Amino acid sequence: MATATVTPIVPTKSKLLMDECQRLACSRLEETLKDVITQADDVLFKFANGADNSRRQNLFFDAMRELRIKRGQVETAFIKNLRGGLRDAMEPPRPGVRTAGGFDGELSLIGMDEVEEDLAINNFVANAKNRCARELFGLEQRLAVLLKHPKLNDETNPLGPLAIGRALRDACELLDADIEARITLYKLFDKLGLTGIVQLYHELNELLCAGGILPQLGNNAAVTSGAARRTRVIIESDDGRMEGSGDDVFSTLTNLMQGQAARGAAGMSGMAGMGGGPIPSMVNLGGGVGGVGGVGGVGGVGGVGGV
């Protein structure tokens, strides 16, 4: 009687290395998010106690309560999103499929909450790229070899700051309360998480070097020139259209809104006559960048895009 020969399927070296990268990245980033959520609970409680009216106080307490209830779901969704991005990166790109996320030219009018979230995530990405530049340079080169990509960039690096920021924002869609909880998480992730992300990139580079992926490559990040990519911001209101450009989205939008508020103050005693109010700072975390609150008298934001 003939016997069948069973040949075990052994994963390729690249698959094994990617699995190791995934385990390391998910473990480190999950720890970072857990710490950030714990800190966010304390921050929201302080904001609630320091609120200047009962409505704001209730918003912060509601945000704190929902974050406590859904923290497990947010943490699980964050890791699931990261794993999904890594899985997609290991598959050959399909023709005609556009990479999700990111700005593509000028956007149509969007709500201030969405703009505020965009600003917080974009600031995290910009700060992470600056803080992690050397390690990120080496990681992009090595992952490109491992994934058989000609070159990785912000959009295609499955472990880059943009991928991490998107995974966090998608996970935070589970939070139904006011925007306070989400913005607080983004800003704390920026403020507290970057040290851990630098260390993660260092460990990933060491792992890939040990696996024989460009072990002689130095982490020599390219120096950006003075002609770096700038951001254009457009604000449209009933009074007209304003445009400005700058090196980052947040400062450009803030300068435009401050300029609009100054022009309005010069022509009238206050914003109250326009049916709006002053522009409050939503979240201030000390060393981080303050958020942008509601904008009285502004019809909407025409778009935040790269030029």
Helix-strand layout with pairing:
Elements (H helix, E strand, L loop, with lengths): L12 H37 L4 H36 L22 H20 L1 H15 L13 H12 L7 H31 L20 E7 L2 E7 L2 H19 L32 E7 L1
Antiparallel strand pairs: 1-2, 1-3
What does it look like?
This protein has 307 residues and is mainly alpha-helical. The protein contains seven helices and three strands; from the N terminus they run H-H-H-H-H-H-E-E-H-E. The chain has a three-stranded antiparallel beta sheet with strand order 2-1-3, with helices on one face. Helix 1 runs antiparallel to helix 6. The radius of gyration is 22 Å and the shape is globular. The C terminus is likely disordered.
What's the short version?
This protein has 307 residues and is mainly α. It contains seven helices and three strands. It is globular and about 60 Å long.
Report strand order across the widest sheet.
Answer: 2-1-3
Q: What is the number of beta strands?
A: 3
Q: What share of residues is helical?
A: 55-70%
Radius of gyration: 22 Å
Shape: globular
Q: Which blocks of ≥5 consecutive residues have pLDDT under 50?
A: 6-10, 96-108, 223-228, 265-284, 286-307
Order of helices and strands: HHHHHHEEHE
- Mean model confidence by pLDDT: 77
Structural class: mainly alpha
**Subunit organisation of the chains:** single chain
What does the main sheet amount to? 3 strands, antiparallel
What is the terminal-to-terminal distance? 72 Å
Roughly what fraction of the amino acids lie in strands?
A: 5-15%
Count helical runs. 7
